[in-house]
């Protein structure tokens, strides 16, 4: 490969969740495969949760905002010719033509009301522009590819599917077990608290269980959405808001849960259910197209808008050990279909 590979490193200033995890894990896989690349980062104040000792990072500019990505970053490439800029978390600079962008999903077009006015306008303008000017577009599922074709009118041969996978830390030996002296029955949910994650329906479904011995643990950072939508549930001691936790803690929450529930209304992929599968935790997920693509028969599907059905399926699963074992076995096999090495090799193939 003759072209020099640069990667937009703005993600390193943010927590390793969601799309940032996709970028980080691909960079780690590149290192393991011996692929040379340079991360261009806007600041030396990198999030401490990233292990960057093997990364070649160049610092350029003074701000981590969209202004850096659209205005400052392009200045770096003045007088540079034989290169490609990879943007794994999103769009990247509009004016740079030698780039590959990643569109993880088009939720902001599917339901604009899930997002703020500024967010909707910004991405509604930039997404089509970046899609048209990009050499290739990466996305994380065949479902998202079909959405890009439908909403943005992009020809299908310009779009390549590069799947997510389970974070590499889940395969490392976990010596720290904060639950070793705790005996508690709980259902687990993991996600941001965005409206499309549909936690309000999950909470209503959970309350219908009427079992005081079981609690609902929710992992995810509180934000303005939480303050306005979920604060009424703070008084319910059966619902535990854990906030953001470390990867090591998260592994244990999965491991000891009765089941994992993912009631999202719209996703481009959905990593948490795969994390649960690797952790031998049975999964309940929304009956939406993308989940059938990613999880196949390894989960129990529910209508995410039907709290009665969600509650009934949770009750069914936590009381049926045979069904739990079946889902754990299917989940283990399904999760093995995805790996960051496979995804990194796919990116390299695209670059060639």
Query: Order of strands in the sheet with the most strands?
Result: 3-2-1-4-5-6-7
Following the backbone from N to C, one meets helices and strands in this order, namely EHEEHEEHHEHEEHEHEHEHEHEHHH
User: What characteristic shape results from the CA principal axes?
Assistant: globular
- Whole-number mean pLDDT: 92
Number of strand segments: 13
The CATH superfamily of the largest domain is known as Glycogen Phosphorylase B
Could you explain the architecture of this structure?
This is Glycosyltransferase. It comes from Elizabethkingia occulta. GO terms for molecular function: glycosyltransferase activity. There is one protein chain. By secondary structure, the chain is an alpha/beta fold. It folds into two domains: 4-166 and 339-351, Glycogen Phosphorylase B (Rossmann fold, 3-Layer(aba) Sandwich), CATH 3.40.50; 168-337, Glycogen Phosphorylase B (Rossmann fold, 3-Layer(aba) Sandwich), CATH 3.40.50. It contains 13 helices and 13 strands. A seven-stranded parallel β-sheet has the order 3-2-1-4-5-6-7. A six-stranded parallel β-sheet has the order 10-9-8-11-12-13, with helices on both faces. Helix 5 (142-152) links the parallel strand 6 (136-139) and strand 7. Helix 1 (19-32) crosses helix 13 and helix 9 (272-278) packs across helix 12 (321-335). It starts with a strand and ends with a helix. The mean pLDDT is 92.
In short:
This protein is an alpha/beta fold and about 350 residues long.
């Amino acid at each position: 490969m003759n072209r020099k590979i640069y990667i937009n490193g703005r993600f390193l200033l943010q927590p390793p969740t969601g799309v940032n995890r996709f970028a980080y894990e691909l960079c780690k896989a590149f290192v393991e495969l011996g692929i040379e690349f340079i991360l261009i980062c806007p600041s030396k104040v990198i999030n401490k949760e990233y292990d960057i000792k093997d990364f070649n990072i160049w610092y350029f500019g003074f701000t981590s905002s969209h202004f850096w990505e659209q205005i400052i970053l392009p200045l770096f490439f003045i007088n540079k010719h034989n290169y490609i800029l990879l943007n794994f978390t999103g769009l990247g600079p509009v004016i740079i033509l030698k780039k590959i962008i990643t569109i993880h999903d088009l939720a902001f077009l599917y339901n604009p009301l899930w997002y703020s006015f500024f967010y909707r306008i910004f991405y509604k303008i930039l997404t089509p522009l970046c899609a048209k000017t990009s050499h290739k577009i990466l996305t994380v599922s065949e479902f998202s590819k079909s959405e890009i074709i439908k909403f943005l009118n992009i020809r299908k041969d310009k779009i390549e599917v590069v799947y997510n996978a389970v974070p590499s830390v889940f395969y490392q030996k976990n010596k720290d077990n904060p639950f070793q002296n705790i005996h508690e029955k709980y259902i687990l949910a993991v996600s941001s608290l965005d409206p499309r994650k549909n936690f309000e329906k999950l909470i209503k479904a959970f309350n219908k269980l009427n079992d005081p011995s079981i609690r609902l643990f929710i992992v995810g950072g509180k934000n303005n959405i939480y303050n306005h939508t979920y604060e009424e549930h703070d008084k319910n001691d059966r619902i535990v808001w854990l906030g953001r936790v470390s990867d090591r803690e998260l592994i244990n929450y999965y491991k000891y849960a009765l089941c994992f529930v993912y009631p999202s209304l719209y996703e481009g992929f959905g990593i948490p259910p795969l994390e649960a599968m690797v952790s031998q935790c049975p999964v309940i997920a929304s009956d939406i197209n993308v989940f059938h693509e990613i999880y196949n028969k390894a989960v129990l599907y529910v209508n995410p808008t039907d709290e009665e059905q969600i509650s009934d399926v949770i009750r069914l699963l936590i009381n049926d050990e045979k069904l739990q074992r079946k889902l754990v076995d299917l989940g283990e096999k399904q999760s093995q279909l995805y790996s960051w090495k496979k995804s990194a090799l796919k990116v390299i193939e695209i670059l060639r």
